[in-house]
Design brief:
The structure is a homodimer.
Chain A (H helix, E strand, L loop, with lengths): L13 H16 L6 H8 L13 H26 L5 H18 L1 H11 L6 H29 L6 H18 L5 H20 L1
Helix pairs in contact in A: 1-2, 1-3, 1-5, 3-5, 3-6, 4-5, 4-6, 4-7, 6-7, 7-8
The structure holds a DNA duplex (18 and 18 nucleotides).
DNA sequence: GTCTATACCGAGATAGAC
DNA sequence: GTCTATCTCGGTATAGAC
């Protein structure tokens, strides 16, 4: 049972307060499983007031999706700037860890992934487009890191293989966030990482 | 938009026909997104008739979940028997491929994974229990294969690391089923597999 | 076991006063 | 912009005839 968490930051514009209240609900109970009355209750307003800010439930949902996608790409950009001048091993490992932390702690991440895997059928096409943008951003980051690692001699394997294997590692460890405890997840991530690194390091 | 696919195997008992009709609907549109009227339409009966076979929507859903879990464990057992006497490399690779095929083609697999990741909150605890059983079955299979591979000298790495990395590989490739085309998925699986094998083969 | 009819509810959405 | 009141629709579920 989800408690009603009032979003109280009174300084924010109403539309933003609504989005922030709706996000965790959509993330946890899905699109069909989240009702406008519940959202309104979390914001602290009445249901019809929502329509002063969003044309429909789908409209609200889509606005949130866009924000989530942008936030993810911002996260990636921060990662690139943060870990400029270290070993390739550390770069890839830190990205894996930070990626996990990001998806673990933020409802943004939960929503992002939930609707990447199981979007409401109506919005499937529109959302796939958004997803591809984020995916490309990630691939670009990886490509740069891996090519640099290849130049430095830290990576032996073929870059395409490395990137695909790394994305698989990200997806796999992400999925496991849902059904392992924090400590068990950490353990599994470590083990999977070691095999991966041994596989590309040569 | 999902067309109405009538389940016509008249020889089956009604309860089974209902489950078979409901499964792909639950798998594709989720628990809340699937209505009893739609299910009834697919079976070719009227909505109230469902209640002669299941006490509630949740009841029907739960019956299906149990079947799905059993089917998955049966699949694993078949795998073990099928690939008894080949190289460890081939055993692990075939399991990866067959696992993918299983989850790709059967609505069973789709449902299994959807509600493993995002179960209806009410059923979370009950379902987690079921999941743990299936997860253990998989781990047992892997443990045997990996220990044998270690004895044969085909595997250099630590068995725990290998198993965790392999499950991560399974999870990652599974997740990618959702958003890559068949050919692209195949390519990515190959690449990820090669890195994995290099990482454990030594 | 299956049907028609219906109860009951909560959903998304709108009208119109303030 | 927010409210109360209300509309319409479709959901789960039940009653009771056949």
């Amino acid at each position: 049972m989800l408690g009603v968490t009032t979003v109280s930051s009174t300084k924010l514009p109403m539309s933003e307060r609504i989005e922030r209240a709706a996000l965790p609900l959509f993330a946890r109970k899905g699109f069909e499983g989240t009702s406008l009355s519940k959202i309104a209750k979390c914001v602290g307003i009445k249901k019809p007031s929502l329509y002063a800010h969003f044309a429909s439930k789908e409209d609200l949902f889509f606005a949130i999706l866009q924000k989530v996608n942008r936030d993810y790409r911002d996260f990636l950009e921060r990662q690139v700037q943060q870990h400029g001048d270290v070993t390739t091993e550390k770069q890839l490992y830190c990205l894996l860890k930070d990626h996990t932390t990001y998806l673990e702690n933020e409802d943004l991440g939960l929503l992002f992934k939930r609707f990447m895997l199981f979007p409401p059928l109506v919005l499937r096409d529109t959302f796939n487009e958004q997803f591809i943008q984020s995916e490309e951003a990630l691939t670009n980051v990886l490509l740069e890191v891996v090519q640099e690692g290849k130049r430095r001699g830290e990576i032996q394997a073929d870059p395409d293989e490395v990137i695909d294997a790394y994305i698989c590692l990200l997806d796999g460890t992400f999925e496991q966030l849902f059904y392992y405890s924090k400590v068990e997840h950490e353990q599994r991530l470590q083990n999977a990482w070691r095999i991966f690194w041994r596989g590309i390091h040569g």
